[in-house]
Amino acid sequence: MRKILCLAGIITGVYFYTKLTKEKKRFIKEILRQVPYLIPRYFA
Amino acid sequence: MSDYDVIVIGAGCGGLSAGSQLARKGFKTLVIEQSDMVGGCCSTFEAQGYRFDLGASLIEDVEVINWCFERLGTTIYDEVELVECDPIYSVILKDGTRLTYPLSSEHTAREIGQIAPGDVMGWLKYGAYMQGFMDAALDGFFLAPGNTLVDMIKMFAKTPALLKYGPLFISSYQDIIEKYFKDPRIRESIGYQSFFGGLPPELCPGYIAMIPWSEHAGIYYSKGGMIGIPDALKRLGEKSGMQLKLNTEVKRLIVSNGRAAGVELQDGTEVTSDLVISDINAKTLYLDLIGEEHLPWLARIGIKSYEYSMATPMLYLGIDYEPPLAGHHTITTLPMDELNDFWWKDYKQGRFPVEQYSIISWSSGSSSGMAPDGHHVIVITLAPGAYRLEGKTWDQIKPELTQNIIDHLSKRCIPGLKDHVKYADFASPPDFEKRLKSPEGAIYALRQDLPSSLVFRPATRSKSIKKLYLVGASTHPGGGVPTTIASGMIAVDLIDKYE
Ligand SMILES: Cc1cc2nc3c(=O)[nH]c(=O)nc-3n(C[C@H](O)[C@H](O)[C@H](O)COP(=O)(O)OP(=O)(O)OC[C@H]3O[C@@H](n4cnc5c(N)ncnc54)[C@H](O)[C@@H]3O)c2cc1C
User: Fold this and answer.
1) How many helices (H) and strands (E) in chain B?
2) Which residue from B minimizes the CA distance to A25?
3) How many angstroms separate the CA atoms of B68 and B479, rounded?
4) Of B151, B242, B214, B190, nearest in space to B477 by CA
């Protein structure tokens, strides 16, 4: 059940992402690109 | 026993704000500056009888700056001769349409109405929303530390109204402008201010979209040049005993048992202190002046991950006629989509096209004494320029680029300019780096989007080195004259609390 919910979540996310304008996609991409650094930056 | 209670590295606005306040509180304070003048990005230099502002050309949110002057027992209005700019700016769109936005928001509505009657309502709604945000930000954001999650919780607990403006933090500048304005010309006329946040409209955080509104609360020029503001802080600090050493570069921060204990100068002299405040780029501070070996591993990854903010080449012109300009600032701009494209296709690729957005500051139109009689000064802040160009160096392209920009501006908005230039100096990103030790010529130190802001920006009270505090554009609340002066106030409050 959990797997199905997870999959449904991902599919919905991808669906909405593809509907976004190219500007909005780049805005999100630029934030996502920096997500791995958020914890290290918190300690900077 | 240390030589000083506090050493401040760098006499930019943040450094002088902190240094002058601490001196007034009785701290024995030394400010060390590598260049021959104070102010850093907010300074004014002289060449062949002309006075040019090096970087900053205007201030807004003057109240924030005034808070610092009040702490120094005076007001900015008593210490600096401010000239209010009205109109705020005249903007020339790609198709040649010109809009001149006056200081009065009602008159601005009228100006918008002449081009796009349908957007007048948008202007009023946008204004009401942004005014609410501005009030909340002035109350809870500018002077609140952004060091820890607890600080964040306190910030929102103190000013719950900020929560209402959450969408501004997860939207882009472009989203906000497009939400309120439908006419492409009106959008174009207020799209370029995203670069005041250091990013193109599609990447800049939505809260920066407050600027086209907050400018209507008043924008000011400092008579005689922007250096008037840091000069006043210097004067007030020195009155309280603050010492200032110019032409002196700090080579290393002395760290002893995990604490900042002073600095080593370029000539090898060591000066000790109980506290150190840094007003320089945080990446340079941690990686070059301190050294990775002193940083915990997580902080090291964090510091290395920061990207420098954009750099903007500048063109300083001394001219022998009165330029036909409408006010202090004239902007040549492009539709937001073209500004975005420029970012990816030119700036990121190391190309610098001539026909780009630019801010023309006619400082001698606002203040006398900037140029010899009958002459004038204009300073042009150009579009973002990459530190490294594709295939050429800045020095190689400078002469031709200078001429092409002058020709372009003569055609587009300053008729006659090309026949009246008596002095021209082009400052590239590497020139800025050389002059201010600002890596890659970054104008706001570090990139200013959400993942590099608030708790994710280098902490005011260092989390890696005890007794070390950061001020200036590298730390919360980021780049800009009012914000860096606010950073000095935040640091002093934290020193009061912890030291
Ligand atoms: C082109 C440009 C246009 C701008 N326009 C505006 C504007 O119109 N309005 C506005 O509000 N803001 C503007 N800004 C931003 C604003 O000017 C800056 O954010 C602000 O002035 C930075 O202050 P700071 O405290 O970070 O110090 P900085 O100005 O960065 O100063 C740091 C100082 O440290 C010194 N230093 C560096 N390394 C060392 C060392 N090792 N030892 C000793 N000293 C050292 C440097 O020489 C410098 O003087 C502009 C900036 C630029 C560059």
Assistant:
1) 19, 18
2) B202
3) 17
4) B151
Regarding the beta carbon of B280 and ligand 1, being less than 6 Å apart is answered: yes
Query: For domain B4-44+56-81+224-307+445-498, which architecture applies?
Result: 3-Layer(bba) Sandwich (3.50)
Interface contact flag, B202 A39, Cβ < 8 Å = no
One-letter amino acid for residue B406 of the chain: I
Q: How many residues does chain A have?
A: 44
CA distances from B169 to B138, B339, B359, B475 (A): 16, 21, 26, 18
CA atoms within 13 Å, Cβ hemisphere of B117: 0
User: CA-to-CA distance for B156 and B22, rounded, in angstroms?
Assistant: 28
Residue with CA nearest ligand 1 atom 13: B56
Residues in chain B: 499
Cβ contacts of B296 on chain A, cutoff 8 Å: 43
- Pairing relation of β-strands B243-245 and B29-32? parallel
When CB atoms are compared, the residue of A26, A30, A43 closest to B302 is A43
Q: Note down pLDDT in tens along chain B; length 499 residues.
A: 899 999 999 999 999 999 999 999 999 999 999 999 999 999 999 999 999 999 999 999 999 999 999 999 999 999 999 999 999 999 999 999 999 999 999 999 999 999 999 999 999 999 999 999 999 988 788 999 999 999 999 999 999 988 899 999 999 999 999 999 999 999 999 999 999 999 999 999 999 999 999 999 999 999 999 999 999 999 999 999 999 999 999 999 999 999 999 999 999 999 999 999 999 999 999 999 999 999 999 999 999 999 999 999 999 999 999 999 989 999 999 999 999 999 999 999 999 998 889 999 999 999 999 999 999 999 999 999 999 999 999 999 999 999 999 999 999 999 999 999 999 999 999 999 999 999 999 999 999 999 999 999 999 999 999 999 999 999 999 999 999 999 999 999 999 999 9
Interchain proximity A38–B451, CB inside 8 Å: yes
3 state DSSP class of B195: helix
Tokens of B46: 């002289």
- Given a contact cutoff of 8 angstroms between Cβ atoms, the answer to whether B446 and A33 are in contact is no
B437 lines ligand 1 (CB under 6 A): yes
B192, B249, B279, best to mutate for ligand 1 pocket (most atoms within 8 Å of CB): B279
Closest atom of ligand 1 to B57 CA is 8
Domain ranges of chain B: 4-44+56-81+224-307+445-498, 105-216, 310-436
A30 closest CB neighbour out of B203, B282, B300: B203
Residue among B203, B302, B306 whose CB faces A27 most closely: B203
Nearest alpha-carbon partner for B109 in B88, B124, B91? B124
Which DSSP symbol is given to B440?
Answer: G
ipTM metric = 0.93
